[in-house]
Amino acid sequence: MRAAVLHEIGQDKLEVFEDIEATGFGPGKVRIRVRATGLCHSDLSAMSGVLPQPAPFVPGHEGAGEIVEVGDGVTHLKAGDRVVVCWLPACGACPACKRGQTELCLAGFMNAGTPNFRRPGGDVFGFAGTGTFAEEVVVDAGCAVPIPDDVPFDIAALIGCGVTTGLGAALNTADVEAGSSVAVIGCGGVGISAIQGARLKGAAEIVAVDPVASRRESALKFGATKAVSPDELADAKQNVTGGEGFDYVFEVVGKSATARTAYDTTRRGGTLVVVGAGALDDFLQLNMFELFFDEKRILPSMYGGGDVLRSYERTIALWRAGRVDLEGLITHRVPLSEINEALDQMRTGTALRTCIEI
Known about the structure:
Number of helices: 12
Mean pLDDT: 96
Largest sheet: 7 strands, mixed
Oligomer: single chain
Radius of gyration: 20 Å
Structural class: alpha/beta
């Protein structure tokens, strides 16, 4: 079968091979024929080494497809079922799951250290234990979440990561208050989803911040009331909040510099939500006096900060009702053979989400 592979961390191009085999099928596992997958910035971060990931590996973790076969012991799925790939499944038994914080379950991360592909030259890993830039993938049954027949594969793929992360940051983690002021720094697919979440919660002012003009224009279509470049953020803070700062600021870049800007842009007593996935060696510096004096809440948001399965269901319900626009997030479509074009679209900011049709 075909799959796109990164040979070494730090390379910026993927190579599509036709001699890949999805391995590891057995009890408790399912084999999925991937039909659509989105390109998330986390894939680029894994390729560059910002996020830890053994290589060689198949990127991709935002996918949807059909069950091909199920292993022994899998009773809730069958061949032909339509599913979305969940890269962070909940085990249901660990302390985090028992507390209801299933997004903090570490079971899924354990899968990342086991190769789930093979080439004649040796084993190949799948990013985040999945690897959806492939025609087929073998994963734990808990990673395959059934979807209704009316949800297209491309829409389901987005729900598998970016949309759930962005919407959840606003709906779950921040629980944005109606009538409040919001700034979102970084307006790719996740940031746009956070904007939609803030709009759903009734935020009065939503300022989108991004260096790419086309993304700023898109943000206005998805619910932002104002869109500015990073250089214009200080003026927006003054004009929208009278200089006090925003009630909620979402950092959706994953860098300490933008997190520091987000902190400074948050009002005293306001809430900074850290959504972007950053590097292990990138440190955010805050002094102890400002932490005490400003009383700003700093809330990291992992995978939307809530129960993943419930978040999937909620997103589908909102999409069906026309309350969130998921189709509009897909600005580009490419076949797997043109995966490097999709990478360029993400790096330059020309795409909100590129759908790779497999």
